[in-house]
Design brief:
There is one protein chain. By secondary structure, the chain is α/β, with parallel strands linked by helices. The protein has a single domain (11-255), classed as Alpha/Beta hydrolase fold, catalytic domain (Rossmann fold, 3-Layer(aba) Sandwich). Helix content is 37%, strand content 15%. The protein is built from seven helices and seven strands. α6 links the parallel β6 and β7. The radius of gyration is 17 Å and the shape is globular. The two termini are 32 Å apart.
Length: 256
């Protein structure tokens, strides 16, 4: 990382960025890790400096205990980012990461650091409950739900050694998402852009459109073909939309 951005186990940076580039913090899905966003970083660099949050309990943080509360996780991440939002920044999260990005945005805003934009993917608005009990299911049922949603290599799900390594973090994330309850928060003053797949079993258009209730600024919804992990085949289009949105917001900010 650059000299003005000290190393931290919470953040991964994959590509260098232009001086003064907008800083984009990315939040992975349940069971995901920072490396999932490496391809997106390659598409956005060097015009956007992408920093991906690495949750405890995976990859190089494998030996750290997972955090099973989304609000506790948001508290921890917001504390880590507090000294890293002195320049324009935005947030992006997929699935669980979308809710987490929103909660972190609310905390940073309360501290006087308003994001330039919030991008959310594959997730209903926080104000729409998303109850579930998969976190209480057997390992076999948990694996079946992962297969149902896609996004995980099928061979990995049939490798006992790999499953032993990843299932604790996956179950922890399911606990965090399924026990999350929106507590209410002032609307953000930044635009919110949502992305979903048209056959996602977890979120439909009305659920995604409800994100508009969480901002005083503009809201846009982009619907792509695909399921919960529509991002993979549509990553270039999503990256282009994000880059254009950031550029527009920055231009308007300069004019004002």
């Amino acid at each position: 990382m650059s000299a003005d951005l000290p190393d931290t186990p919470w953040l991964r940076r994959f590509h260098a960025a232009d001086p003064g580039a907008l800083r984009l913090f990315c939040f992975p899905h349940a069971g995901g890790n920072a490396s999932y966003f490496h391809p997106l970083s390659a598409l956005l660099a060097p015009g956007i400096e992408m920093l991906t949050v690495q949750y405890p309990g995976r990859q190089e943080r494998f030996n750290e205990p997972c955090i099973e509360s989304l609000t506790d996780l948001a508290d921890a991440v917001a504390a880590e980012l507090a000294d890293r939002v002195g320049q324009p920044f935005a947030l992006f999260g997929h699935s669980m990461g979308a809710t987490l990005a929103f909660e972190v945005a609310c905390r940073l805003r309360a501290q006087g650091a308003e994001p330039t934009a919030l991008f959310v993917s594959g997730r209903r608005a926080p104000s729409i409950p998303a109850p579930g009990s998969v976190h209480l299911a057997t390992d076999e049922e948990l694996i079946a739900d992962m297969e149902y949603l896609g996004g995980t290599n099928a061979r990995m799900l049939r490798n006992p050694d790999l499953l032993d390594a990843i299932l604790p973090a996956v179950r922890s994330d399911y606990v965090a998402t399924e026990t999350y309850r929106y507590r209410g928060a002032p609307r953000l003053d930044c635009p919110v852009t949502a992305f979903i797949g048209d056959s996602d079993p977890r979120v439909d258009i009305p659920m995604a459109e409800a994100w508009a209730d969480h901002t005083t600024d503009g809201f846009r919804l982009h619907v792509y073909t695909g399921g919960h992990f529509f991002l993979v085949p549509h990553l270039e289009a999503v990256a282009e939309t994000m880059a254009q949105s950031v550029s527009t917001v920055q231009t308007l900010s300069t004019q004002n």
